[in-house]
């Protein structure tokens, strides 16, 4: 398993996908924070704007996870992967570990960049920068964990559906449009939908910016975490089972 993990990390470092992830995370964590600090009236600056790009990072790591699996099918490298490791469940587990940890690190990097902007930018506006306390750090830890979960979910979706464009487009349309509508009009159903569940781990909206998620939430954070893991597990197992009957050559 260690050699398989090393191989996955090597593939990750040698592809453009990881470079694109780094650039995208840097932009969405830097640009919105800089603009908000620069243009929000001084009396409204309170440090909350430092996490402005976190939601966007969540969608980026979702796409990153999908590409991590579908690129192998698109370029045919999945054949060599399965020849080297015929046990496809082990390949899936390695992908989940590697991409999940990378997604979590991407969120960590985004939050650190945002704090760095705050250290530099807030004093320039005459506002004191306050080091995040225990509550804020706990929120950041949950955001990092959710980023890892969402990345794993993207990997599982990519493995199950295989078609890159369809999977990316479908996941984003569902997360940004379809699921928020269901949450708004059928909150009882929406409580159990995947991106709403991920959002309930942090008690902040990932799937919708309507601001009503907390009111509609029927899950505690531990429950939401367990349901999130269940989603990833079910889709991953389905992907492995289906892949056994698919020709990857």
Task: Give an overview in words.
The chain is mainly α and 249 residues long. It has one domain. The protein is 77% helix and 0% strand. It has 11 helices and no strands. The chain has helices at 2-13, 16-39, 54-75, 78-84, 88-124, 134-161, 164-185, 187-190, 194-202, 213-216, 221-243. The chain is globular, with a radius of gyration of 19 Å. The model is unreliable at 204-217 (pLDDT under 50).
Major sheet, described briefly?
none
Number of domains: 1
Helical fraction equals over 70%
Order of helices and strands: HHHHHHHHHHH
Low-confidence stretches: 204-217
Can you count the helices?
Answer: 11
Based on CA inertia axes, which overall geometry fits? globular
Mean pLDDT across all amino acids: 82
Q: What Rg is obtained from the alpha carbons, in whole angstroms?
A: 19 Å
Overall strand count? 0
Strand content: under 5%
Q: Structural class of the secondary structure composition?
A: mainly alpha
**What separation lies between the terminal Cα atoms?**
24 Å
Write the layout of secondary structure elements.
Blueprint: H1 2-13, H2 16-39, H3 54-75, H4 78-84, H5 88-124, H6 134-161, H7 164-185, H8 187-190, H9 194-202, H10 213-216, H11 221-243
Helix pairs in contact: 1-5, 2-3, 2-5, 3-5, 3-6, 3-7, 5-6, 6-7, 6-9, 6-11, 9-11
